[in-house]
Amino acid sequence: MVAPAAMGRSSTGPDMMFRHHALIGLLAIAMPGFAVAQPKPASDPLRDCEALALAQSKSEGGSLKSIKLERGDSLHENRFDRKVGSQYVSSEYIAWAAIEDADGKRRARVVCLHTGTAGNKAVYVLEVPR
After folding, report:
1. Which of 3, 20, 39, 116 is the most buried (most CB within 10 A)?
2. Which residue ranges make up each domain of the chain?
């Protein structure tokens, strides 16, 4: 029972804080993931190709500083869906790329083989010689 003297006062003490925290807890239980659910970013196979090119260059002692495959009309995607040796390849990407290495900046044609699987990874990148 609430004492008559306390009836007109606003509740800002520990009792109100408990109610506030309890309400937040109930909302969190009732709507799990409401605040945390965020859509996964769409995978970008061309970004995978760029990352692999940089990693290959680094592991082979190359001087590649950056590579950016062009999107749009210059990009050709060929569905492959076969094994190359023991590696499954779902797509072949052929695109122009802005490349920077120790020799400077240039635009070159690049081929990338990609698995297209849940791991979503590129398995081979090659700059096409002129």
Report:
1. 116
2. 45-127
